Structures are given as structure tokens and as C-alpha cells.
Amino acid sequence: MSADSIPVDWDKARTNGHEAGRAAAGPAEAVPLAGADGRTLGEPLVALTDLPAFPTSSIDGWAVRGPAPWQPTGRVLAGGTAAPLTGDGTCVEIATGAMVPEGAEALIRVEESSRDAEGRVTGTPRPQPEWRLPGDEARRGEELLPAGTPVDPAVLGMAATCGYDRIPVRAQPRAALLVFGDELLTSGPPGAGRVRDSLSPLVPAWLRRYGATVSPAAVRGPVQDTLEAHVAAIREALTSADVVCTTGGTMNGPVDHLHPALAELGAEYVINTVAVRPGFPMLLARVPAADGRYRFLAGLPGNPQSAVIALITLVAPLLAGLQGRELPALRKVELTAPVPGRGGFTHLALAALDPDGRRATPVGHVGSAMLRGLATADGFVVVRPDTAAAAGDLVPFHPLPLYPGERP
Ligand SMILES: Nc1nc2c(c(=O)[nH]1)N[C@H]1C(S)=C(S)[C@@H](COP(=O)(O)OP(=O)(O)OC[C@H]3O[C@@H](n4cnc5c(N)ncnc54)[C@H](O)[C@@H]3O)O[C@H]1N2
Ligand code: MOO
């Protein structure tokens, strides 16, 4: 296994990362609805009954049969089963959500009805039906959502409506982070040749937004800059993680030990360097673990913005694949200012979106060692190899993994 390689095209790197994840995805497991938020459907969600399951009144009023006036014979509330209406000129009082009795011909709203001295009901039904028929929303056995759908609050509510107590979802990938670099400080301000480790706080938080779990014990660093310490730390992390991310040491500097460590661990590269700037020395490898199965290692470059680009280029597609999710397609936005190309590399340029999300403006402070631009951007505009983008051009946009409201 050589550390030298031809950089992979950026789009191809995303696709390869996704396919590698998909090929390694585990089976679906049934979990209670309360624990399924944020997971991914492992099988299609199918209607267990017709929906609604019985003819259901949409109003409070009267269920009537035959011509007016109607003599009330009883009442049916939500949750009850209704006796059939058998005689013309009869009705039952009915509540919203109650089962409409067999034999009912119309429903009349209470405020659009009146009663005579004998208690008989009169009124004119509205032209549109005031009840919902079984199957109006779904037929029993109908597929409502495909496998691979992210589970959100609406999906949880729909599964409950259908009568599910548990739903089949994919396991959440377990991720770990190893930070390399003896120059890193874990607290206090930088100086005297030392820089503050910015990736231990950043990477786990974004891994979680991509659907992985990261326990506090799974974040380690700085790992000592020796080959032995790197190999030992990776081996240890592989015992409890499906995806181990490392930062730094991806190049061939005097203390860059990642490639030699991978060789020692018998790893096989899925991707070794990507033709993208910033970020190119990134890699994704399969590493055999002690149990005989393989896990993934994503090597993120040490420059912080480059590490983020490796996260969105390799790790996000891998995690999507492992969860059985599609690789998100990139939408296009209009550039408000020119963005230069980066020769034969894809250029990912940090940009902020207009409130309507249609136009992107490049932000400042975007060197690969900087995070200031990242903290004000919504994502990256994509400028393909051997091109440059002009103001007014439509270009693909890769969003940052943000929760709603995080960039108001
Ligand atoms: N001779 C060459 N040198 C470099 C090249 C090159 O093509 N030829 N490429 C540069 C590029 S591009 C990148 S990116 C970096 C990637 O290098 P490594 O992944 O080996 O990263 P390190 O050398 O360990 O660190 C680079 C830089 O980032 C700082 N760093 C590292 N970890 C953190 C962290 N957790 N928090 C904050 N900052 C971090 C580190 O101090 C260095 O300044 O290689 C270039 N060199
Ligand atoms: O690729 Mo480096 O990641 O340009 O900073």
C-alpha cells in the first residue's frame, strides 16, 4: 500500500464513500417510536389498516337517515362503535371523530340544525360529505414511505397513526475521533508555537448532525506523534467504533504517521487523496478489526477548514450509506461575486446564502488553516476543475450540516 496516489475527482469521492457505506450497512432493527427520532427507515413504512380505519365523522352534529324531520335514537361518541341506523326519519347525535353508523345518509352540523317541540331534528346537509371514508388517506398494505427515509417528527406521528409501536430502522453508526499533533493545546489561548485543538469540539458535533453517535470516551487527543502511539490509538478506537476519524498527519511530514500506521494495520484504501482544494490529502480506508470484520477510517487533514471539507466529502456520504440513506443531490445557487478556479482541483469556496436561499456570496477568511469564514457561511459553492465562476453563474452548493435556526 503506497501513500502516493492519483487524487480522485471530488464527485467520484463522494459517490465512492457512499457506496462503501451502503455495502457495509447492517440490517434493520425494530425500535420503539420514542427512540426512533433521527434514525432511518430500514424497511418501507406500510399502512397496517385502511386509514381512517372506519368511517369517521368530521363534525359535531347529527347522523341522519331518510327525509327530515329525524327522531334521535341515541348518541355515538369518539371511541365508541355505532349501532346501525335502520329506520328512515331517525338520527343519532354524533361527535367529531366518532364512527359513522351504518345506514347514515348525511351528517348535519349541530349549529346548522334545529329541533321542534317534540325534539325532532331538521336541517340541510352540506353538499360535501362531512365524514372521511376508510382508505381516504391510505389503503391497507399501501407503501407510505420508502426504506431510507430519515425519521422525523412527522414520520413518527404517521407511524403511530398507522398503529406501529416499533419501526424498523438502521443502527446509528458509532464514530470515534483521534486527534494527532503534539503542537496542540486542549485548553487556553495559543502561543509560543502551540495552537489550540479546534477539531475535538467541531468534528463530533458535526458527526452527530450526520446521524452518528459519538460518546465522550470516543474522542481522544492529542495522540502522541509516534507511529506506535498512532497504531495503538487506532486499534483501540476500532474496538467500539464503526467509523474512526483522525485529524492531521495525512501528509508525508517528519511526524505524519497516518499512512505508515494504516500499512501496519493492514488497511485498504477506498480513497487516497481527493482532487479538491482545500482538503486534498484526505483519505478513507477499510481497516480489519479484531473481530475479523472491517471498520472505516477517515483521515482528515490537519488544517481545520480542510478537515471540514474532508468531513463533508468522505464522512458524510459514508454515514449516509451506512444508514441506508441516499447521497443528497446538490442544488444550484446563483453566485453574487466571482470565485476563482483551483487548476485541476475542484474548488470548494465558503459562501453565505441570501435569506431565500437562492443566491450565494463568498465570505472572507477562508484559508485552509482558518475557521472564521466557516462560522459565518452556510456551505460551500462548488467550482469544477479547470473552470472559474463568474457573478451570475449557477453553481452547485454543498450545505453545512446545520440544524434549523443555526444560521438565522
Ligand atoms: N510539502 C507539502 N506540505 C504540505 C502540503 C503539500 O502539498 N506539500 N499540503 C498542505 C496541505 S494542503 C494540508 S491540508 C496539510 C495537511 O497536513 P496533515 O494532515 O499532515 O496535517 P498536519 O501537518 O498535522 O497539520 C497541518 C496544520 O493544521 C494544524 N492542525 C492540526 N490539527 C489541528 C487541530 N486539531 N486543531 C487546530 N489545528 C490543527 C497544524 O498545527 C498544522 O498547522 O499539509 C500541508 N503541507
Ligand atoms: O488541501 Mo490543504 O487542505 O489546501 O489546506
Kindly summarize this structure in a few lines:
The chain is of the alpha/beta class and 408 residues long.
Task: Explain what this protein looks like in three dimensions.
With 408 residues, this protein is an alpha/beta fold. It folds into 4 domains: 10-26 and 171-322, MoaB/Mog-like domain (Molybdenum Cofactor Biosythetic Enzyme, Chain A, 3-Layer(aba) Sandwich), CATH 3.40.980; 30-50 and 136-170, Molybdopterin biosynthesis moea protein, domain 2 (Alpha-Beta Complex), CATH 3.90.105; 56-132, Molybdopterin biosynthesis moea protein, domain 3 (Molybdopterin biosynthesis moeA protein, domain 3, Beta Complex), CATH 2.170.190; 331-399, Beta Barrel (Beta-clip). 18% of the residues lie in helices and 28% in strands. The protein is built from 6 helices and 26 strands. It has helices spanning 10-24, 153-162, 199-209, 227-238, 258-264, 304-322, and strands at residues 28-32, 45-46, 56-57, 61-65, 71-76, 90-94, 106-109, 113-115, 121-123, 131-132, 143-145, 166-170, 175-180, 184-185, 195-196, 219-223, 243-247, 268-272, 276-277, 283-288, 294-300, 331-335, 346-353, 359-362, 379-383, 394-399. The strands form 8 sheets. A 6-stranded mixed sheet has the order 16-13-17-21-20-18, sandwiched between helices. Strands 22-24-23-25-26 form a 5-stranded mixed barrel. Helix 3 (199-209) runs parallel beside helix 6 (304-322). The protein starts with 9 loop residues before the first helix and ends in a 9-residue tail after the last strand. The model has no long low-confidence stretch (mean pLDDT 96). Bound molecules: ligand LQZAQKY5 and molybdate ion. Its EC number is 2.10.1.1. This is Molybdopterin molybdenumtransferase. Residues 176-321 form the MoaB/Mog domain. Catalyzes the insertion of molybdate into adenylated molybdopterin with the concomitant release of AMP. Its cofactor is Mg(2+).
